[in-house]
Amino acid sequence: MATMRAVLLRKAHDVRVDEVERPTVTDPGDVLLKVEKTAICGTDLHPYEGRLELEEDVVLGHEFLGTVVEVGAAVTQFEEGDRAVASCVVSCGACYNCRRSRPGQCLGTRIFGLGIVFGSLSGGQAEYVVVPNADLTMRRIDDQGRGNDEDKLFVGDIMATGYEAVRKVMRPGDTVAIVGAGPVGLCAAMAANVLGAGQVAVVDKVAARLKEAEAIGAIGVNASEVDPAEAVQDITEWRGADVVIDAVGHPSALLSACSLVASGGAISIPGVYTEDSIELPFGELYLKGVTIHQGVANIINYMDETLALIAAGKLDPSRFVSHRMPMSEAAEAYRMFEAREATKIVLDPTS
C-alpha cells in the first residue's frame, strides 16, 4: 500500500502530520494531483476550534495547487504533467442549480477537507489529493503574464470568494465597508478597488492586518479604538456604506455589518456560518430596505476571471502571505493562524 504524509484533525485543537494511504483515481472524471502548495483558510478554523464537528482523522485543507500525475478516462481538459489549481467547492455541473450558474448551491456540493458533512472529500493539506469532476473543478495554470503560484493558489478559494462577494453587489463608485481584515476580507478589498469602488473601508482590531488593508488603498478602521459605524458614517456624509462585506462569519461581525450599511444598500456574506440561528435587527434592516446576499461561494464562476486579472497584474493576493512553513509544522501553523499571529500561511507538502 502506497502512503503519503497529510495533515489530520484528531479532535479540536489537535492537528498532526501522519502517514495515510495515498489516494488513487477511482472515477473516470477524477484527477490525481501532486500537491505543491497548500494553505490554511479561515474555514479550516471551524473544525479546528470544534465549531464544526468532524469525524476523527479527516485530512484537512481546501486551498491547493500542483501537478497532474494521474488522469481518469473521462477527463478531456487535463493530462499528466499539467499544473492546475482546484476550486475548493466541487459541484456536479448538471443539477438545477448548476444549470442556473449557482454551483455553490449544487444539490451535491462537496468541499475538500470538511468531512462527511461536506461530501467526504479528503483534503489538500497532503502530498497528493484526488480532484473529482476535474474538467469543471480545476483550471490549468502556466507562467504567462504576471502573478506567481501563490497568487494562483488563492483563485481556488479566498481570491474568488472575496471577488464574488463584491462583484455581485457593487456598482462603480460605491462605498464598500468590509468587516474583517483576514485573507478573505483583504481579497475583497483588493477586488473592490479593481472593480471601481469609490472608497473602501476595512474594519478589524489587528493592527498588522489593517496596515495591509491600508497598503492596498483602503481606509483602516480599528474597532478597538473607534466606533466603526461612526467612522463609516463620517466618510460617507452620514449615509453609511452602499455595500458591506461580512468576511468573518461570526454573529458579532454580522451585527457590525448591519450597523454600517446604508438605506437601500446590500450586505454580502462570504464568511462561513454554521449556527442554526442568530439574532439580527430585522426591523431596522426591513425599514432600510437592505438586501442580504449569502451562501457557499460560486468559486468556479470566477476562477477564469480572477486568473486573468492576476495575469494582467491587477490582483496580487500573494502579498497577504505572512508565513511560509513546512507541512511538518502544521500544528504550529494552525496555532498561529487561530491566534491571529499570521495573516495567511502557505504550507509546503514536500518538507
UniProtKB/TrEMBL annotation:
Coiled coil: none annotated. Keywords: Metal-binding, Zinc. Gene3D superfamilies: Medium-chain alcohol dehydrogenases, catalytic domain, NAD(P)-binding Rossmann-like Domain. Transmembrane segments: none annotated. InterPro entries: ADH-like_C, ADH-like_N, ER, GroES-like_sf, NAD(P)-bd_dom_sf. GO terms for molecular function: metal ion binding; oxidoreductase activity. Residues 12-347 form the Enoyl reductase (ER) domain. Its cofactor is Zn(2+). It holds the Pfam family ADH_zinc_N. PANTHER family: DEHYDROGENASE, ZINC-CONTAINING, PUTATIVE (AFU_ORTHOLOGUE AFUA_2G02810)-RELATED (PTHR42813:SF2), ZINC-TYPE ALCOHOL DEHYDROGENASE-LIKE (PTHR42813). This is 2-desacetyl-2-hydroxyethyl bacteriochlorophyllide A dehydrogenase.
